[in-house]
């Protein structure tokens, strides 16, 4: 048994996750002018909401699926499918989040992909898509060779956390640059910390706390599925259900 | 023996680390106007150099000390002292890096600590200082109680990687905001990707690669000191040398 119970932790993470998404939505609605899907700046406002929902909260929740203690009883397959489904929904939201910013840029004739935030964010999305495809091919396809599964498992686990680190850096740099865009010519500039700046800085710190707690839960040895290094990982998982 | 040899990895990391510091210095010298220590914008230029050197490269190197295979032979104490010394030098550079930006802000009447980058960066530095003091008190003081060492060891290890994740986010958001400051009113704005933007974006991605490789090396089970969960960690280490 873990020293710290997983259930209270997951309730806390659930609350934090809802707060991250809700506050990002509130920022969009209250300060950034609301939401639309028409290439306007209101379309851009979907970008942070969809990215925080998909790439941070759903992705983080999907990574924690195998830490649920009652998932440790066999069969493992339903939990694999839940993990794949959550990350797939996350991935769809992330693609919509990219569409939101590209459409806005294109309509406003703003160049795409110039800032370090965009380079890093796209790197995280590309790694995430590789992670999903490789995970599907290795852990769900019944004809995946055992050597591939054994070789890829630690890489998949490492990149799970590494991509989350990139996501944190992308969220922080994204919020930071949005505040500079928004408040540079404002009557109360960012440097005077108007209410919006306090709010969005606080949101950034909350996102960090959420992400670090996920990384911590993933690293905690007592919360790792006991079969993590057992024969189980070397079996094609769709065959397990037979 | 690890599947991947540590020596070539550490040579690669050494080269990448020198490149991160060297390119940050080159950015300061070639594009940002050089270096000074007089409250001018040239004083600010020490901030990225000192932070990348201390908080990324020296910190990352210090974290990897226990992954050096020939450190695994006893006594462990010299390696503990090397780890403490490297992190102490890193900490001194980080403090100087903070002085560089605060002095610059104060002289130019720019408010301190308003951006999300600054909130995150200061959080990383505060956690780093707690980490150093707690590490010293728990692992080097011979009268540190065994229960404290056993309790604190996994926390110290986790925060070692977690702080590095924060540092990556701080570096990315810092470079990103500096490029917006520098290039917003330039004849070639950031969005047109002038040479400086390419250079600094590339530097940001290099910093990410360096940091992710350190996180990967720290997570690799085969590279962990074999005694990581043995009696060794529960002994007051200064007593080991007796």
Automatic annotation (TrEMBL), chains A, B:
By its UniProt entry, which InterPro entries does this protein fall under?
Answer: CYB561/CYBRD1-like, Cyt_b561/ferric_Rdtase_TM
Q: Where are the transmembrane segments?
A: 6-28, 49-69, 81-104, 116-143, 155-176, 197-219
Q: Per the record, what are the reactions this protein catalyses? A: Fe(3+)(out) + L-ascorbate(in) = monodehydro-L-ascorbate radical(in) + Fe(2+)(out) + H(+)
Q: Which UniProt keywords apply?
A: Electron transport, Endosome, Glycoprotein, Heme, Iron, Lysosome, Membrane, Metal-binding, Oxidoreductase, Translocase, Transmembrane, Transmembrane helix, Transport
**PROSITE patterns in the cross-refs:** CYTOCHROME_B561 (PS50939)
Q: Does the keyword Cell membrane apply?
A: no
Give the subcellular location: Late endosome membrane; Lysosome membrane
Q: Which residues form a coiled coil?
A: none
- Tell me what this protein is called: Lysosomal membrane ascorbate-dependent ferrireductase CYB561A3
